[in-house]
Known about the structure:
This protein is α/β, with parallel strands linked by helices.
Amino acid sequence: MLGAVLAGGESRRFGSDKAAALLDGRTLVDRAAETLARVFAEVIVVSSRAPVSSIWPHVPDRRAGKGPLAGIEAALGFASDHGYEGAFVLACDLPLVEVGTVRSVLDTLGDRLAAAPARDADRGWEPLCAAYRIECLPMVSAALDRGELAAHAVLDAVDAVRAPAHARALLNVNTPTDRARASAVLEDGAG
Length: 191
């Protein structure tokens, strides 16, 4: 599988480009890419904006302004074009995801079309820390064609399997306060 970091968000709540924001001395995009590079032979950064890192290959969204589902489409398109079975996507604003979580999702995937960690009972999937096989690409593209932008709906449609994950690993950094919380987790050694 291909490793793909999603770094195309507009960062409205963060106030600046969160992909370039530092956490524990590294940018959020580099943290995510480095985690994936410990599992996958090739890692790309998908974004509709200019490249946020000179280290990792940049792949533009095929549809700018269409959110994370467009990033998943671009990652799967790249994976398909380059002979991969699929793509593991990781949003850069999930900086506490570690190799163990990635491997858990991959181990759970088996022969299914997709796998993602379960969030708590109210929120369901975490579709931006998930493995998608190439066969999901037509469904992702069709959803975007219909104007549907919810990535979790694709997981439901393909009967994805839920993977175990520690709740702290799925801390989403949308605001500077969230980044402070992630930093505190790292300082405590629990991230």
